[in-house]
Amino acid sequence: xxxxxxxxxxxxxxxxxxxxxxxxxxxxxxxxxxxxxxxxxxxxxxxxxxxxxxxxxxxxxxxxxxxxxxxxxxxxxxxxxxxxxxxxxxxxxxxxxxxxxxxxxxxxxxxxxxxxxxxxxxxxxxxxxxxxxxxxxxxxxxxxxxxxxxxxxxxxxxxxxxxxxxxxxxxxxxxxxxxxxxxxxxxxxxxxxxxxxxxxxxxxxxxxxxxxxxxxxxxxxxxxxxxxxxxxxxxxxxxxxxxxxxxxxxxxxxxxxxxxxxxxxxxxxxxxxxxxxxxxxxxxxxxxxxxxxxxxxxxxxxxxxxxxxxxxxxxxxxxxxxx
Length: 323
What we know:
27% of the residues lie in helices and 20% in strands. By secondary structure, the protein is of the alpha/beta class. It folds into two domains: 1-32, no CATH class; 38-316, Aldolase class I (TIM Barrel), CATH 3.20.20.70. The chain has a ten-stranded mixed β-sheet with strand order 10-9-8-7-6-5-4-11-12-13. The protein has a three-stranded antiparallel β-sheet with strand order 1-2-3, with no helix packed on it. The chain starts with a strand and ends in a 7-residue tail after the last helix.
């Protein structure tokens, strides 16, 4: 099924079965760098987490989980112009008390839900609910619960990704994966993994005092491996916007590949909504957001905060977010 979003200047074709999204200019206009409304929303439905991971960029704050009522109000506003939502926040979205209703309400409004989990206490009931999602990502904790969650998801034909933090600690493992090696040997069958997605570590939240930032040399070598011509057999590889911006600024993407790469989409094509219903350019932002209790999502998207962020990106392709 194809969901079509059309304005006077561009068209978005979203293939709901594969997640493929094509955005192109129409009526003589170029492909858009900024959308009139976000096509992807990162929604922090979780307000707190018991795990207290040392690297959590969200920090160890305790807020109430987003209410089902507030979540539905978001979906009601975005259902005609947004294709996907990524469910997150502090903790595992599958442990939200209204997880089932959240997934079902998204699907019923033709908005594809995706989420990331540690895999801890991932139940058979949650697995069954997850069959309605576009994809589920498991964070690479390298623990028994990680391997068990990946196995259960893949056995149920759920598109399964692995999310790994791009940090000094994981540098060797990232290089192994990009070189076609399996760092987990028999604990994970890479044939069951749809994609690896690497998320650049940032000194933010609980991890603000950790010395885990990759050096420019390490990022450069990762880019060399990712874009090498003789790519070894491996699952699909993806990098978050923060990684991509570094690749671009280091001139690591050749002219042939460059048209296929998009830089940071914060405030241009996506946004983050916190458990307390504040809308921000991205989930790393630690600034005062736009309250959706007082404004609509469209008003937030057109606010000065979002305009300033996107203008900074359009001119510099550098992260303008205050951590």
